[in-house]
Write a structure and sequence with these properties.
The chain is mainly alpha-helical. It has 16 helices and no strands.
């Protein structure tokens, strides 16, 4: 969930590292701490997206040190937030929570409720991504209350969606679907097409789980159309993958169409550098091939998926699917 915002707003991995390094040298000569902090943070993001998490975290830590010298404390919040997310992606839950809690405290001292709530949302996501959904749900509810208190409807919608996913994963199906539907209503009022598609995708998955395949098909096709309309490649990849699962899940489903959809999703995941998404597509292709008894090719795709997942765990730099 957390990775999608940065992935859609700024493609760090394709940024020119040399240009950023040159800019860093210039701002150091000018003793410009705010620009130095920003550039170090961006360089750290680029390194993380390219799989060099160790060097990325080192640069982000230096960004935090520079940001502590800045009068503008919002710069510190930004750098702390980036560092916390990087620690989380590397498996450093405790370090991530510690850094993000400091970001929340600085935001609170700034009396910026939305900024504080967003830090809490990242803490919740950190707990959830490391398996502690119960704690994550408690924290996301705190973030939701803060967003509602200042009428921040974008934040409210994001928290409702996140809470819904957590509830669903905990087995609280009714509560989870209710939260996601509430997020969908808010996002429709905001005309947030990316957010609407995200909710439709997740509701479609829930409908697949309970066997309502026709309704799921409607939700997922609407989500895919919205993602096409706004050029959201990550959302398209996710919708295509869920549609592929849907056709495979049906007893009389079209296995050929399922394979085509998985392969289209795989192509988009490669463009997005979404390693986990690629692994899920290979697993889906392998399942379909095994079902039609092409066991040799199925084994090849299972091996590809395993290799991708091991690489993601080793590098820590995989961009994860926003809705799981």
């Amino acid at each position: 969930i957390e990775e999608e915002a940065r992935g859609r707003l700024w493609d760090a991995a394709s940024s020119d590292l040399d240009d950023l390094e040159r800019g860093l040298g210039e701002c150091r000569s000018a003793r410009d701490a705010p620009i130095e902090a920003d550039l170090l943070n961006r360089i750290g993001l680029v390194l993380c997206e390219r799989g060099d998490m160790q060097q990325g975290i080192k640069r982000m830590s230096r960004a935090v040190s520079s940001a502590r010298l800045c009068a503008n404390r919002r710069i510190l919040v930004t750098c702390l937030s980036s560092l916390g997310c990087a620690h989380s992606r590397c498996g450093g839950k405790d370090a991530a929570v510690e850094v993000l809690e400091e970001a929340a405290q600085v935001s609170q001292r700034l009396s910026d409720v939305s900024l504080e709530a967003n830090c809490l949302r990242k803490i919740a996501l950190t707990h959830a991504s490391h398996g502690d959904l119960t704690t994550g749900l408690v924290v996301i509810r705190d973030a939701l209350d803060l967003f509602i208190s200042v009428s921040d409807t974008y934040g409210e919608a994001a928290c409702l969606f996140t809470a819904g996913v957590m509830q669903y994963e905990l087995g609280h199906t009714g509560e989870g679907v209710a939260d996601i539907e509430a997020s969908l209503r808010v996002r429709r009022a905001l005309k947030d097409k990316v957010g609407i598609a995200e909710c439709l995708n997740r509701l479609g998955l829930a409908l697949i789980d309970i066997g309502f395949h026709l309704q799921a098909l409607d939700y997922l096709e609407r989500a895919l159309a919205l993602c096409h309309e706004v050029g959201d490649l990550m959302g398209q990849a996710h919708a295509l993958r869920l549609l592929a699962y849907l056709h495979f899940a049906q007893v009389d489903g079209d296995r050929k169409l399922s394979l085509e959809l998985f392969k289209k999703s795989l192509s988009l995941c490669r463009r997005n550098r979404d390693v986990v998404g690629q692994a899920m597509c290979h697993e889906g292709v392998a399942d379909v091939l095994a079902d039609i008894e092409d066991f040799k090719l199925s084994a090849h795709h299972y091996a590809e998926a395993m290799s991708l997942r091991e690489g993601a765990l080793g590098g820590g730099g995989a961009r994860e699917d926003p809705t799981g």
